[in-house]
Amino acid sequence: MSAAASNRLRASIAFAVMAALLLLVGIGQSWSLALAIFNLCLISAIMSLGVNIQWGYAGLFNVGIMGFAALGGVAAVLVSKAPVAGAWAAGGGGLLLAAACGIATIAGAVLLRRRLPKGKLRLVCMGVLIALGYFAVRYFYDPAVAAIEAVNPAKHGYLGGLGLPVIVSWAVGGLFAAGAAWVVGKVALGLRSDYLAIATLGISEIIIAFLKNEDWLTRGVKNVTGLARPVPYEIDLQQTPWFIDAVEKLNAAELVSLAAGARLDALNKLVIDYSSLLVKLCYTGLFAGVLVIILLLSSAALNSPWGRMMRAIRDNEVSANAMGKNITARHRQVFILGSAVIGIGGAMLTTLDGQFTPGTYHPLRFTFLIWVMVIVGGSGNNLGAVLGGFLVWFFWIEAEPAGLWLIDNATNWLGEDHAVRIHLMNSAQHMRLFLMGLVLLLVMRFSPGGILPEVVRRR
């Protein structure tokens, strides 16, 4: 059997096992939980694909995933929330003037650098211009921000957004992340891989710090709640006649044997349960559609001449440079593409949560876990990245209840108030970290290339 055929068989088996695990959750726990996990698996798979584009295609070690995901979340706020008229009236003009001063300062500095010869005169002129520009920006910026944040701070205190459909923010989130990646690429992509990792980590922390402290933009740690949905609300479905009739028809055999009062109570409960399932299924359809589109585009790119060139650069930069390839430009290109995919995933996650909370962006969730997904699934293999996103997130969610079940059954011979049993039961949440380390260790030991390792097509 060829390597490609073997990999296809492994992929079929792996995804079948993943489907069986989700079905077991639906049967053993609840279908609502199974769909919730599945939706988060879809988003995790998209973020994993973004990192795989950077690492698997080009060998770029990006440890700033968290920052690009947060920029996607910001896009959901700035696109979907309605503008706050009072905040714009209070300080919108001042912010625009501050932005104009900043742009003029940057443009002037670039112009001086191009027109003046290298030397002390150019340094002095640029220094004076930048200092004057800084004070001009702060002159307009500080009072504008104070005025905006004073407008009903308990509810608003920020400018709001554009009031557009939230689904538009998914594309905007990709653009925000791509723009930030272009800036990072200009600054850091010429560095060695370990320095690049440090630089991207630092830049992502700067982004998070900015989002936490600039209340006029995202309300900071006060959070933005009540984001619009691209799917119906459960309460609306529960009051819709056609939906109630559909639920009643689907469960007619179960309801017919009940008394009138009990039948009404049972129907109300079923309507609530089914409305939650339908909303989650709507999210599933949207997320799965985006994942399939990104997966198809990523696979087409990987198997194109561009993809073969990127792998050649990844495997031997010296030889690729000798063949006339612009290594830094290609690295910047793939870094922007991967970051854009991460930004799309970040916007989708904020849409699913219905709120933007800058304080929840931690490296463990938005950097470490995504890297584990890529490594476990198989870097350089798009299907492997998707599988890793599903598998790792599933175990991350189910590790705690599985740990509780395991500890409960392993210590049931001890008394309920035994100190050892109580300690172990209270420590069950740490099973997540233990399990992630164990999964990563086993994969690295028995399949160093991941569950679905990269298969290079020979031409």
Distance between the termini: 18 Å
Indicate the proportion of strand residues.
under 5%
Note the overall shape: globular
Weakly predicted, low-confidence segments:
none
Given helix and strand content, the structural type is mainly alpha
Brief rundown of the structure:
The protein has 459 residues and is mostly helical.
Give an overview of the whole structure.
By secondary structure, this protein is an all-alpha fold. Helix content is 76%, strand content 1%. It has helices at 3-28, 31-58, 65-80, 85-115, 120-149, 168-188, 193-213, 215-218, 234-238, 241-250, 252-255, 260-302, 305-315, 317-322, 327-353, 363-377, 382-410, 419-426, 431-446; strands spanning 224-225, 355-356. The longest helix is centred in the middle third of the chain and has 43 residues, at 260-302. It is globular, with a radius of gyration of 26 Å. The protein starts with a helix and ends in a 13-residue tail after the last helix. The mean pLDDT is 89.
SSE blueprint:
Layout: H1 3-28, H2 31-58, H3 65-80, H4 85-115, H5 120-149, H6 168-188, H7 193-213, H8 215-218, E1 224-225, H9 234-238, H10 241-250, H11 252-255, H12 260-302, H13 305-315, H14 317-322, H15 327-353, E2 355-356, H16 363-377, H17 382-410, H18 419-426, H19 431-446
Antiparallel strand pairs: 1-2
Keywords:
459 residues, mainly alpha, two-stranded antiparallel ribbon, 19 helices
